[in-house]
Amino acid sequence: MTAARKYNAEQLMNVVLAPVVSEKSTFVADKNRQYVFRVADRATKPQIKAAIELMFKTKVDDVTVLNVRAKERHFGRIAGRKRSWKKAYVRLAAGQEINFAATE
């Protein structure tokens, strides 16, 4: 039984919000077969794994999650705060790959 069958497919589509494209995420993808995603704040590791396997039809080996804390921002004298968010590093099985540029 795959991880995707335990959860509702409709709910899983709301778990992964966007890929994080940066210099670090590109380096990690090339070196360790890891891809970085911005995920929902309340998402768990099994939910993230199931969502990636469902959306990209790949086999996930490991999921590492971290919370990115909110940052203070200033616009002149007005102080504000950026939102905190959750980031997931997803390592794929050997031979698996995610191509973000491909369209189906």
Strand and helix map with partners:
Elements: H1 9-12, E1 16-19, H2 23-32, E2 34-39, H3 45-56, E3 60-68, E4 72-75, E5 78-81, E6 85-92
Antiparallel strand pairs: 1-2, 2-6, 3-6, 4-5
What's this, in brief?
With 104 residues, the chain is α+β, with helices and mostly antiparallel strands. The chain is 25% helix and 34% strand. The protein has a single domain (3-92), classed as 2-Layer Sandwich (Alpha-Beta Plaits).
Mean pLDDT value: 91
Structural class: alpha+beta
Provide the spatial order of strands within the biggest beta sheet. Answer: 1-2-6-3
> How many strand segments?
6
**Which class in CATH terms?**
Alpha Beta
State the end-to-end CA separation.
26 Å
The overall number of domains is 1
Q: Can you give the helix content as a percent range?
A: 25-40%
**SSE arrangement, N to C:** HEHEHEEEE
The CATH topology assignment is: Alpha-Beta Plaits
Which stretches are low in confidence, meaning pLDDT under 50 for 5 or more residues running?
none
